[in-house]
Amino acid sequence: MEKYVYVFGSGKADGNGTMKDVLGGKGAGLAEMTNAGLPVPPGFTIATSACRLYFESGNRMPETIRQEWQKALEALEKLQGQRLGDRENPLLVSVRSGAKFSMPGMMDTILNLGMNDAVVEAIARKTSNPRFAYDSYRRFIQMFGNVVLEIPKNDFEHIFDGQKKKRGAKLDTELSTEDLKKVIAGYKALVKRKSGKDFPQEPKVQLEMSIEAVFRSWYNPRAATYRRMNKISDDLGTAVNVQTMVFGNMGETSGTGVGFTRNPATGAKEFYGEFLMNAQGEDVVSGVRTPVHISELERINPQAFAELRDITTRLERHYKDVQDFEFTIQEGKLYMLQTRNGKRTGTAAVRIAVDMVHEGLLTPKEALLRVEPEQLDQLLHPVLDDSKPLKVIAKGLPASPGAAVGRVVFTANDAVAKGKVQPVILVRAETVPDDIHGMEVAVGILTSRGGMTSHAAVVTRGMGKSCVAGCAEVDVDEKNKVMRVGALSIHEGDWISLDGSTGRVILGQANTAEPDPQTGIFAEFMKWADESRTLGVRANADIPRDAIKAHELGAEGIGLCRTEHMFFASDRLPHMQRMIMACKDTQDVKEAAKYEKERRAALAKLLPMQRKDFFGLFKAMDGLPVTIRTLDPPLHEFLPKREELMVEIAVLESKRRKGAKLNRLKKLLAVVESLHEFNPMLGLRGCRLGIMYPEITEMQARAIFEAAADAKKQGIQAEPEVMIPLVGDVKELALEKEIVNKTAEEVFKKKGVRVEYLVGTMIELPAAALSAGEIAKEAEFFSFGTNDLTQTTFGLSRDDCGKIIASYVKQKIWPADPFAQLDPKRVGRLLKMATSEGRGAREKLKVGICGEHGGDPSSIEICQEAGLNYVSCSPYRVPIARLAAAQAAVKKSQLKAYTTA
Questions:
Q1: Global pTM?
Q2: Residue 241: what pLDDT?
Q3: Is 318 assigned a catalytic role?
Q4: How far are the Cα atoms of 173, 248, 324, 329, 707 from residue 280, in angstroms, in the given order?
């Protein structure tokens, strides 16, 4: 029979740290710490499989699971010598979520469970500390009411803040026992009013309701948003951890805190964290009270501090990764409540990985797996330019590094609405997990309360966004949408800038500067990546500026130059349009010759411009391959829209303005209508243009080879690769290749130099993938255009399918957007099959990918499996692709070693 509940306590646990799939990250960490003999309060973990079964059973607790956790509860009561609900020696527990992957603050927690009217009195007598007892009870009612009964947290806080105001108290700890009793009475009345029932007094009923509520929190909006952002499967479910309570709110010898074994913002090897005395965990992370730096604990309780340093250092060495830990000190005694691999910024991730190699904790290959490829994007973002004066108006805590410049908004919903059209900075007194959707779109976060381990700090570090937290100088009036710093008022829509590396808040739009990621720690890390990977990494670049940036970021060539982008410039578009206006079908030989002459005349104007562009690319990539795609899009894309022309003509005619302009517009409209296609992406484009109008391919080939020859004469090594798009049959490629080769010979003869080159094709149609063996007889390389290959495989227009994809992903028809992540079952299968068959016909066939998938880490793994030679992506994703390719190679070698062992 399947096991659903795993106990831990007294130095032994049913599970261990490798069981994250079963126990979740938190449960696995508790089991591992218990087995290591660390001071962990005992309890039990209800497995993730129980959560899945709960939902499969229609949000009902199956009896088998209920019986199993009740048996575990009995064992816990026996171990502790306490019973849930006992009036003499009551047991209190916490109920916490714990998914396989860390989701900080996204799901729910309930503390002090087991409290009721009788138990609070028993604890007051037992501890001789009635204030502690009633403080714990009011916390429990608030958490239970919010999480289980779904009463808004603000309703409880209104009652609590009202009592503080009545007593003139600034801090929670200034309220007396009698004050807390009044708060509890108010909370109970609120529960009765909102739920129609009295607050439940039976602890086992409280426990079952809480377990189910934590299960349900897996699908709350903030958790769903976080999973979507971090590509975590909805199917995993969460574990539930039921653990004996230890109390940080028993007085000034008690406290609670959270920390990291290294700085998660910068990666520096320093003990990092915060704590509060006479508090519970929510006080530290919620931002309600501003916590104290963890170094102060050494002064307050040197023994607990030393023990905490020793334990966390051992944990980091055991897991070989930075640890995010939680602890409570109850009347001087330290307890560990959690350890897990810590969330960190991209900067910190790289530094920690490199430092751990230098410290002998990791090998370079292990270090590569410690950094998410997407995190490297953060290292390439602009930083504030301090060379020019900045108007610093306040300073808070540097919670997450980087620069952010945006307009102020005060709610998550406003951030979503306004962030669609302009950069926004979300300003809050404190963020809560329900703000996740606004934090996702904001470029930066500013809070007036909270510390370095507050919700805002932890979540923004995981997102790689700039955050300044706990900026006490800022008074945030969310109701009136204004923030005040002294006499200065900043309203919604005003510009501010944040420096998350120093904590500075700056008025207005600060200037930013480009970082230099090619030096120091980053360069060393990327050197390990390049030594480990087998896949080459190229860039998609159409102009020399992009090619230079790509080369700086480590690109080993250009995998896709889209020549059509060169024709949209204002000095070129008129020539392109003249060429298009001569693309007319006629059976008359004289007319056909006339139109060809007109096309060639227009192309002759474009030739020197194209040649100059290509020369710039060859110069930027000196000695590296440059893959140039011949003209691909439908011709109508270079012309005004039909509807716009009709309106312009109608306006001129209504004003009775006849003349050359009106005649030109009418001729242009006639051409637009003649080129109209119901499905232009499957119409006259790609190689079909070159076959119907060979002079287009000829002009582009001439520009390529003249530029390459000129480059060679100047000592620049040019390596052109001419790529023919949209081939579906080998005969199409043969016709185009003949034009390219003939033109190359003419140029080489005229220039007196020869340049080595390749002619290949894009595989972007199922027809091409299915006939790859034949096509490879003509093609010297393949490059998968996975944007179009996905489109034609799925029969899905990428320009019109936004709503369809969102709906399909939501309904789990597809696991992800197939245009963002390469579909492994269909498109990936075509890719692997075409590569295999192509190399069967041409053994040394070079194969790459140049669609947007070339920069996606999960897609790169498929490319590694298929045996491709390279991937190509946008310039700023080159470092991401380099790391993803290295990780794919390391994982492949690890799998091979495991299967052969």
A1: 0.80
A2: 96
A3: no
A4: 12, 5, 17, 10, 70
